[in-house]
Amino acid sequence: MHRSHSTRRPVQGVESARRVLSGRGRHGAAEGWQLDTVRGRVVELSGGAATAALTVAAGLILEAQTQGLPAAWVGEHRTGFYPPDFAARGIDLEALPVVRVNALAQRLKALDTLMRSGGFALILLDLGHERIPLGVQSRLAGLAKRHHTALLLLARSQSNTPSGNTLASLRCDTRKERTLAHQFTCRLEAVKDKVGSTGWEHEEAGDGPEGMG
Q: Could you tell me whether strands 3-6 and 15-21 are parallel, antiparallel, or unpaired per DSSP bridges?
């Protein structure tokens, strides 16, 4: 396994370090938690600690915006997206379309419209504890591949518990560990990867708003 290290300048004290453990997949594709490796795929982030998933998802949004690529968020009114935390992370809120509807059918309809537009490099769907019907999963996977869009599903399932979103080509468990009073580490582990090999990891360590940590 090849180990690479990268460090970003902290944004308003939120992120102090980042480490990616990555390698090459069995088809020669790069592994690791970065936008280039997840575009064209359906990716699921799971774990009981939802804030860990939010933290690593926010990292992809920031990466997309840094590259000048559009990203969007689809979720419920009562969960997930909290603008001040994302702004503190360095995300440009004016450049991030946010769709908030509670019914899953409405969220999937909005997601389908965004996916079909072909205008986004990254779209995040906050699923909570719900599951996407298999036929809809198949359609979304096809749209992700066709438009080279990374579709990121945020699921609240516990680690090592299947969520039912079986067509995700990459599934990662996330967890948060507090290291000091105001510092934490968010860890991501690939437990299913149809392109690469399972077991690669990603870490983000920092301090900042509780909602992101």
A: antiparallel
CA dist., res. 207 & res. 77, Å (int): 26
For residue 161, what are the CA distances in angstroms to 47, 155, 172?
9, 11, 11
The pLDDT of residue 92? 97
- List CB contacts of 20: < 8 A, sequence separation 6 or more: 4, 5, 6, 32, 33, 34, 202, 203
pLDDT in tens, 85-107: 899 989 999 999 999 998 999 99
Q: Which residues of the chain fall short of a pLDDT of 50?
A: 1-29, 210-213
**Between the CA atoms of 31, 40, 62 and 125, what dihedral angle is there, to the nearest 10 degrees?**
-110
Which has the closest alpha carbon to 153: 177, 175, 172?
Answer: 172
Whole-angstrom distance, CA of residue 6 vs CA of residue 120 = 26
